[in-house]
């Protein structure tokens, strides 16, 4: 018989929020899985894959739209989708549930959408740890080939959308902690994040990001 350890939620205290930001195939989902399985408390898993699964076909890829401004007609809806997702994250936290989120924030749209600062404002006052998940482009390409059998262009160059992801996803580059999945396993990344959670220094990245001027 499967035994479950029941956890009493503290609704008088907001749940922790961990946001993993990086390119596709950078290892965000693997880290999120380790966090959900090993960290103390209840950890709900939000992110691009889960959100895309609930997005109607005509609005795909939704918040997973890659940089390049290829589908400007979707962009107003994408901004609303991001806002809705972060409002949901905030509500989970206010109910005492911890949330781990894997996303790939970028501003590579046809017009500036200022999504990341808007999302930071939605989570204002909540305990948010913003993690930069980095991985060299060579490793990203190896993983793309292994997972999807999709690699370099015919001229042996990195495809433009992949290069744009790599260039834009870590702007402005303000994080509470960064991890490199080319040298650290998901478990090692999760351990560093756990140590940062236990640090007496409060998270500050989202506090700084929310005040970025809409130039």
Automatic annotation (TrEMBL):
Keywords: Transferase. The keyword Transferase applies. SUPFAM superfamilies: P-loop containing nucleoside triphosphate hydrolases. It comes from the Bacteria. Pfam families: CPT. InterPro entries: CPT, P-loop_NTPase. GO terms for molecular function: ATP binding; transferase activity. The keyword Transferase applies. The active site is at residue 49. ATP binds at residues 22-29. This is Chloramphenicol phosphotransferase. It comes from Oceanobacillus zhaokaii.
């Amino acid at each position: 018989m499967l035994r479950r350890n029941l956890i009493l939620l503290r609704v008088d205290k907001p749940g922790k929020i961990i946001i993993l930001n990086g390119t596709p195939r950078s290892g965000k989902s693997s880290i999120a899985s380790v966090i959900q399985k090993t960290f103390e408390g209840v950890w709900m898993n939000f992110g691009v894959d889960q959100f895309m699964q609930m997005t109607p076909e005509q609005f795909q890829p939704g918040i997973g739209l890659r940089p390049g401004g290829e589908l400007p007609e979707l962009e107003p809806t994408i901004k609303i989708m991001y806002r809705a997702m972060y409002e949901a994250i905030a509500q989970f936290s206010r109910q005492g549930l911890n949330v781990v989120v894997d996303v790939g924030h970028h501003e590579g749209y046809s017009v500036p959408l200022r999504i990341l600062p808007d999302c930071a404002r939605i989570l204002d006052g909540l305990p948010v740890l913003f993690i930069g998940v980095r991985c060299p482009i060579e490793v990203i390409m190896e993983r793309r080939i292994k997972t999807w059998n999709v690699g370099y262009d015919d001229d042996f160059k990195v495809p433009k959308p992949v290069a744009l992801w790599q260039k834009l996803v870590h702007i402005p580059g303000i994080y509470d902690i960064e991890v490199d999945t080319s040298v650290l396993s998901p478990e090692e990344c999760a351990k560093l994040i756990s140590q940062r959670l236990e640090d007496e220094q409060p998270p500050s990245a989202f506090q700084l990001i929310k005040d970025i001027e809409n130039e």
